[in-house]
Amino acid sequence: MATLDPFLWRALLAGMMVAAIAAPLGCFAVWRRMAYFGDSLAHSALLGVALGILSGMGVMPGVVAVCALFALLLLWLQQKKLLATDTLLGILAHSALSLGMVAISVLNAPGLDLQAYLFGDILAVRTEELRWIAGGGALVLAVLLAHWPSLVLMTIHEDLARAEGVRTLRCQCVLMFLMTVAVAVSLHVVGILLMTSLLIIPAATARQFARSPEAMAVGAALIGILAVAGGLYASLTWDTPSGPSIVSSAAGMFFFLLPIGAAIRKRG
Amino acid sequence: MSSSETALIAADRLSITRQGRSILQDVSLEVGAGDFITIVGPNGAGKTMLLKAMMGLERIDSGAVTRRPGLRIGYVPQRLVADATIPLSVRHFLQLRTRVSAPTLERAAEETGITAHLDCPLHVLSGGELQRVLLARALLGRPDVLILDEPAQNLDVGGQLGFYKLLERLYREHGLTILMVSHDLHLVMASTKKVVCLFHHICCSGEPHVVTRDPEFIALFGDDMARLMAVYHHEHHHEHEEGHTHGHA
């Protein structure tokens, strides 16, 4: 067995951690129809990258700050109830992406690899980023675990949850914030444009087999981890781009497992 | 004011305005232990808003709602749209956010007639089954007050009859306190102790057979409805055996 180079270990570790973080949030994205929200949030991350570098805050804090602002802006616009959420997301997502592109071109930072931010570059993950991912991941999973039953009940029926004492607006904000952190830490793994797939595909695949919300989240994590390993292997073997390879392997698993899941459900 | 001291929930001159429209005006309503109050009124009369305000879920513009400290409320919403994207069994749903022992859960399931569905995913249940699941969940919280918002609105006639019959039985056997919005006044006449007729303000209220003769009630629902109610009331006073069907051909 060939020994792995340190950069490969880092890549594998980063990818697996990100898959584990994205999995339960991806379940909520599937249940609450937040796929487009996740996508828009990811688009706004590019502006965060630019501002993070510009202000000297660093890329990850910049992304978290801009994504959080984006989520708050959306929440505020939603309260006005004049325009539908998908309209608002369409406006916000692409203006944020465009602003990000403009900011990066103005910034003209030497060595800034736009491609890496758009599609991810997991093989370039450094130890510092690994720490960010581990820290952010621990935060996301801890908060999620603490709020889990309330979040699930709110997803089933919002008024019922409120009547039973769940502070639903707070829970919604918590979920948005966790998505923000997840976007920031997945940036290096799959990049801005493929972020949603890492949330959605493992969760959607796990849905085929899961009989409880918890099983779906754990299953999504396992599928995500396998997809990362598979994608990384493909990337090394055939020298393909890492982010798209990971997403392709996740998509491959989804379509391979789809008929199997259907057959199992049919048999009861 | 001894009655308001014993009330479980009391709305006092409650007014709610939303986007410049007055939804509730000067509504005063008390729910005491053992009450069975049915709120009727046309669509958009503010019935759901009143329930939510009584539960403390809506911002109040003037007046007050007081709830007895530590009051446990069981809520049965109009409907549960169970989504296939989330895998959740009935049993799991009943245990979400609450710790209930297995025997307690089994008993609640038995009383509401959902034992056979306990391990089914929520999304395969029919509307009537889902409403009974919601009722079971509300009962598991051992509520001081059960609040139902048009709980049989989306059921067929058979389902409505079954649901209200179950509710009446639970009311009698458990000594529940019920505050309900319902269009199906004719189906709950027998147990309802007090009918509140709401159209932004309380038009009239009192015992069912009194309210249905009230000119305000007749103005709101029409003469036919009032006469229909009178017929039902008459029947309920004569027949109480199990399984009797309403309406003589």
Provide the fold topology:
The complex is a heterodimer of chains A (268) and B (249).
Chain A: H1 6-31, H2 35-55, H3 59-80, H4 85-107, H5 114-119, H6 127-156, H7 158-163, H8 168-190, H9 195-207, H10 213-238, H11 242-267
Chain B: H1 2-6, E1 9-18, E2 21-31, E3 36-40, H2 47-55, E4 62-67, E5 73-76, H3 90-95, H4 102-112, H5 127-140, E6 145-149, H6 157-174, E7 178-181, H7 185-188, E8 194-199, E9 201-206, H8 208-211, H9 215-221, H10 223-238
Parallel strand pairs in B: 3-7, 3-8, 5-6, 6-7
Antiparallel strand pairs in B: 1-2, 1-4, 8-9
Helix pairs in contact in B: 4-5, 9-10
Instruction: Give the C-alpha Rg of chain B.
Output: 18 Å
Named CATH topology of chain B: Rossmann fold
Rounded average pLDDT of chain A = 91
What is the helix content of chain A?
over 70%
Total helical elements of chain A: 11
Number of strands of chain B: 9
N- to C-terminal separation of chain B? 48 Å
The two chains with the largest interface, and their residue counts, are:
A-B, 22 and 23 residues
- The CATH C-level name of chain A is Mainly Alpha
Quickly give the structural class of chain B.
Answer: alpha/beta
List the uncertain runs of chain B: 237-249
Overall 3D geometry of chain A? globular
Instruction: Enumerate the strands of the largest sheet of chain B in spatial order, edge to edge or round the barrel.
Output: 5-6-7-3-8-9
Total count of strands of chain A: 0
Distance between the termini of chain A: 42 Å
Element string of chain A (H = helix, E = strand): HHHHHHHHHHH
Report the helical percentage of chain B.
Answer: 25-40%
What is the domain total for the residues of chain A?
A: 1
> What portion of residues of chain B belong to β-strands?
15-25%
Description:
The complex is a heterodimer of chains A (268) and B (249). Chain A is mostly helical. Chain A has 11 helices and no strands. In chain A, α1 packs parallel to α6, α3 packs antiparallel against α4 and α6 runs antiparallel to α8. With 249 residues, chain B is of the alpha/beta class. Chain B has one domain: 3-Layer(aba) Sandwich (Rossmann fold), CATH 3.40.50. In chain B, the strands form 2 sheets. A 6-stranded mixed beta sheet of chain B has the order 5-6-7-3-8-9, with helices on both faces. The longest helix of chain B has 18 residues. The radius of gyration of chain B is 18 Å and the shape is globular. The N and C termini of chain B lie far apart (48 Å).
